[in-house]
Amino acid sequence: MKASRHRLRVSRGVAELIRGLHPQLLRKLRAALEQVLVDPRSGKALRDELAGLWSFRVGKFRLIYRFDRRHIDLIAFGPRERIYEETYRLIARK
Question: Which fold would CATH assign to domain 7-93?
Answer without folding.
Answer: YaeB-like fold (3.30.2310)
